[in-house]
Specification:
The chain has about 190 residues and is an alpha+beta fold. The chain contains five helices and ten strands. Strands 2-3-4-5-7-6 form a six-stranded mixed β-sheet.
Length: about 190
């Protein structure tokens, strides 16, 4: 049995015009899919398959709810990101597999669609573009180093609402500044 065998749906062999499938995704699913955005998580998927009156077209409705583990944009530590998705996929039979606009065309002689990759894509699309820990939850050491590079003046103690701790190694290094930066800092002071 293949990794994604349980995600195959035999549309040609559907006996009822409406069928519901449920899947529990875990870390194994995300590791097997082997895609860069998400490698861990848990999610519950409800898939409703509705056969259209013509009999050669289907509407697949996905309801996904769960949590995935992604990297924080600020400190690069792992963080839990809740995801919720409601998506629809239109499928019809044809000669060869193809994706045409809103339609996914599957070979009529096979009549089977594997929804594993579609589920993964819907989850990946549900992740917000910006993902950062809640204020105060970022890795303190990394946030401190980031703060040192983002400060506009020596009086700034925090960045983006995250309290920073002083890094003794960075503090002990000399504060030699390139004179060209002083000219650029004047531009910031004028704003």
């Amino acid at each position: 049995m293949g990794k994604f065998e349980k995600y195959k749906i035999d549309l040609k062999g559907l006996e009822d015009s409406n069928m519901t499938f449920e899947y529990e995704l875990d870390n194994r699913f995300f590791m097997d899919i082997d895609a860069p955005e998400v490698s861990k998580g848990k999610a519950h998927v409800v898939l409703d398959v509705k056969k259209q009156a013509a009999g050669n077209a289907f509407e697949l409705k996905f309801e996904i709810e769960g949590t995935v583990v992604i990297l924080c944009d600020r400190c690069l530590d792992e963080m839990d990101q809740p995801v919720t998705a409601s998506d629809k996929l239109l499928v019809k039979f044809g000669a060869d597999y193809a994706e045409d606009g809103d339609w996914v065309i599957i070979p009529e002689e096979e009549g089977v669609i594997n929804v594993a990759w579609f589920i993964y894509e819907f989850i990946a699309l549900a992740i917000p573009m910006k993902h950062v820990h809640a204020p105060g939850k970022c890795n303190k050491a990394m946030a401190g180093k980031l703060s040192k590079h983002l400060r506009v003046s020596a009086d700034d103690d925090d960045i983006a609402g995250v309290e920073m701790e002083e890094d003794e190694d960075l503090e002990s290094t000399s504060q030699i500044s390139d004179p060209r930066w002083n000219e650029l800092k004047k531009i910031l002071d004028n704003n």
